[in-house]
Backbone:
């Protein structure tokens, strides 16, 4: 295999990595907000259930969770998931998305919660005195400040996600790490791993740059 | 002409706030033990007293940031809270409370401006979003208010770029923009150094001259003496003494008041 061929093959894997990365973010960032809303719910059973969910997501390896989402339905209910698909997506990919989104949403929820809890009570009191409704207070006054507060922690999590997408290789999803392993084995060369490393590094460099620009755009106030 | 005079007279007798037999407990700690407070239109009342005497809690109860355990609160002629014979505290329905909440404003010790908004936005947002008023009108009024606060050139600044005294004046403008009938101040200068304190006190004094109805919790004794119509000394959840500032400061009738005021003069 020539170097350019290998590079092209791995670039196509990188596209799958990026697809998984973007879809996971699109799912987990808003879902994390729903999770934190449930955790803070006054309806106690819901709050407890959410707590258990977060504990499991954070307490077990993501790789194990991916295996459970993929093989669980077959082992537990005897469902034949191999033939199952939504919008032309095979179940393998759906299991990956479920696993990644649920796992990352738990982490994002905890980040959001810490941000919300760090808001001074005076902000709520000032809003209350001025007559703002609860949704007006949350969306107009609290949330914009929380976004600024949690951005550095979110950046960390997003960078981790870029690298965590390599866990998808456990379900033989052909993202860049999975391809690197295959090519390395067939060509008895370490070079594919070096290339994969460079791909991840560049991706994270771009992510860090975007997040920094976002942080900068909110630096006009303290 | 006679009519206008009558109106002014009526206005002066208008009771803006009436609090009766207010009790408040935090756990086993009785913070307010039966406070009565009536505020008439145009009155400026200073509440003084040692830390933990309940004066801030009284303001927080008056503004519904804290619920009360017993008593009655009436704004103008609208009952906000009553206590039934069986001792149950009943707050008015939500819609009515919303209306009542527009009668008062509160200026906090820590300012509590919204840091992500410019000074002008801080002053304009509540009239726009809460009162749903016209933007042009609100902006014109907000600029006049900032002018009165001596902050006309700071309209586009953000709170983090202002001094504490400037921030507190923005907070006062923000409260005034809602056109409250009565304005509460909860130790408005306690977070400020003496120089900044003066600029905030000047503004409050100006409001007093304009007959703004105000209740001020403060540790600034000479200010309280100069500006108020009535001074209330609180200690241990009770009103120990109240009256004309000259009488309370110059010739206090209670030993506890004398002792408290003496600690201030010793400090100086």
Residues:
């Amino acid at each position: 295999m020539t170097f350019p061929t290998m590079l092209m093959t791995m670039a196509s894997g990188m596209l799958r990595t990026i697809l998984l990365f973007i879809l996971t973010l699109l799912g987990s960032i808003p879902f994390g907000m729903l999770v934190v809303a449930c955790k803070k719910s006054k309806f106690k059973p819901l709050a407890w259930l959410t707590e258990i969910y977060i504990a499991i997501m954070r307490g077990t390896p993501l790789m194990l969770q991916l295996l459970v989402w993929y093989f669980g339905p077959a082992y537990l209910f005897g469902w034949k998931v191999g033939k199952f698909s939504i919008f032309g997506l095979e179940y393998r990919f759906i299991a990956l998305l479920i696993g990644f989104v649920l796992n990352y949403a738990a982490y994002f929820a905890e980040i959001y919660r810490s941000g919300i809890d760090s808001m001074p009570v005076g902000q709520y009191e000032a809003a209350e005195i001025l007559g703002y409704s609860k949704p007006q207070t949350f969306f107009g006054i609290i949330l914009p400040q929380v976004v600024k507060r949690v951005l550095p922690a979110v950046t960390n999590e997003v960078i981790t996600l870029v690298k965590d997408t390599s866990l998808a290789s456990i379900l033989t999803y052909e993202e860049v790490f999975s391809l690197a392993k295959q090519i390395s084995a067939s060509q008895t060369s370490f070079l594919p791993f070096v290339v994969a490393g460079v791909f991840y590094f560049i991706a994270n460099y771009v992510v860090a740059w975007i997040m920094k620009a976002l942080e900068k755009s909110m630096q006009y106030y303290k | 002409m006679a009519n206008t005079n009558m109106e002014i007279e009526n206005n002066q007798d208008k009771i803006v706030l009436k609090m009766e037999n207010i009790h408040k407990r935090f756990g086993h700690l009785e913070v307010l033990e039966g406070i009565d407070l009536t505020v008439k239109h145009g009155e400026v009342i200073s509440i003084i007293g040692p830390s933990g005497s309940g004066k801030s809690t009284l303001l927080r109860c008056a503004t519904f940031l804290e619920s009360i355990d017993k008593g009655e609160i009436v704004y103008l002629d609208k009952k906000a809270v009553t206590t039934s014979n069986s001792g149950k505290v009943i707050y008015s329905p939500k819609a009515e409370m919303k209306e009542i909440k527009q009668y008062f404003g509160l200026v906090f010790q820590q300012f509590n401006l919204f840091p992500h908004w410019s000074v002008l936005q801080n002053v304009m947002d509540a009239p726009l979003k809460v009162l749903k008023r016209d933007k042009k009108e609100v902006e014109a009024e907000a600029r006049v208010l900032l002018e009165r606060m001596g902050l006309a050139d700071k309209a586009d600044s953000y709170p983090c770029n202002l001094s504490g005294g400037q921030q507190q004046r923005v907070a006062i403008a923000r409260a005034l923009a809602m056109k409250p009938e009565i304005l509460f101040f909860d130790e408005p200068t306690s977070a400020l150094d003496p120089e900044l304190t003066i600029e905030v006190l000047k503004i409050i004094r100006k409001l007093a001259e304009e007959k703004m109805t105000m209740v001020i919790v403060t540790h600034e004794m000479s200010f309280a003496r100069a500006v108020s119509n009535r001074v209330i000394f609180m200690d241990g959840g009770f009103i120990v003494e109240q009256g004309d500032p000259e009488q309370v400061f110059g010739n206090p009738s209670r030993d506890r008041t004398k002792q408290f005021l003496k600690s201030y003069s010793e400090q100086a």
